[in-house]
Amino acid sequence: xKVFHISAECYPVAKxxxxxxxxxxxxxxxxxxxxxxxxxxxWYDKPFVRDHKFEKVYESEFKQGSQxxxxxxxxxxxxxxxFEIYLVKIPGLxxxxxxxxxxxxxxxxxxxxxxxxxxISDQNIAPDLFHCHDHHSGLVPFFIENxxxxxxLKGIPTLATIHNAQYQGWMGWQQAILMPSFxxxxxxxxxxxKNINPLASLIKCCWAYxxxxxxxxxxxxxxxxxxxxxxxxxxxxxxxxxNGIDEEIWNPETDPFLHKNYSVRTVITGxxxxxxxxxxxxxxxxxxxxxxxxxxxxxxxxxxxxPGFVQELxxxxxxxxxxxxxxxxxxxxxxxxxHLREKGNTAVIIGYxxxxxxxxxxxxxxxxxPSRVEPCGLxxxxxxxxxxxxxxxxxxxxxxxxTDLSKNKANGIVFEEVSLRNMVQAIKRGLKLYxxxxxxxxxxxxxxxxxxxxxxxxxxxxxxxxxxINRL
Length: 472
Known about the structure:
472 residues; alpha/beta
């Protein structure tokens, strides 16, 4: 079975969050089980691309509106990631440093999808299935069924994975001129609320879709940034499959980023050694419990509450807890947090830093995730793998993976609604647990033994692939 994963991100080539982690792991585990899974993504001027060898396997050109673009498909030559990876390079569009936030982003992703389908079609490559991730590949199912240029691909099954329905790739209808020529009678498959909506088109046109947790699938019917009725109307082709974590990368026993590696047996001394190094680097108190936040500074992550939360910690928990923040995003949140760096026992690091994130997971006692929206959440899974207790809001994948201390098979602290009050109450419970060192250490060990690897989830994806292919 040959499957193409189509995505804007793939770790370690380029990532901003969970999408990159998933696309960097799932194909590897699929290949281990005999699936010929490959990734197609845009070319970015990133260290991985500069440091590895790529060969040009195809080049051509296409017309976007009134402009012609040349493009090349580049393949990594060593299979270092455990799967084939292809980069689409388009001078003037897909040859930049960052993944998102350019003013012509919609043009970029239209061109990305046009170019990759032209390559596959022209070369008579016949995948058994296209696996499309989020809105950046949302036009693929529509194009292969309704664009004359890609008629050779018509009928190939498509699966859509929804990592985050908040982002939909909206664009005005004037952008339609940039697309490959398509059957104009099918314009409704692109439309949502009088705009072209790639995520809506993906859900309408794909053979099946899945959310990255069962909880998030149910939430999409009630909260999907305007697409609730669409997800509900298409619910018969919807599935929930929880993400896994790549245990080759996220393994405290072998992680090269750590100050000291450790196992379930040595978790107490191992985490203390890592915590000591981190505290010395950022002026924190080794003797106090260490709370961490790692992620994007966005409303959906509850990051707007962090500045007030830091002040609450300083006022109500002076000399009782350390807090370290690693992330970037909303400029107002960044500025507010930067001004609070001088608060006692608080460290704020602005930016994305993969190495430091691993070190924080290995050092922290608690990780807080006050998310308003969390389709799956990987951070809580990484935390538990490293013996760090998650403190989470009950939503989406967090609800599916973290069980409160008050219940059987507890593995964390859970609060219901996003508010400073609830966050502070959760911290009080965490401090009380920390004082009961034997109970706390037992919970650390039990969490490290939990299996959130890709093994189970990979099998569910393969079964879904087989069901779709067998419908032909």
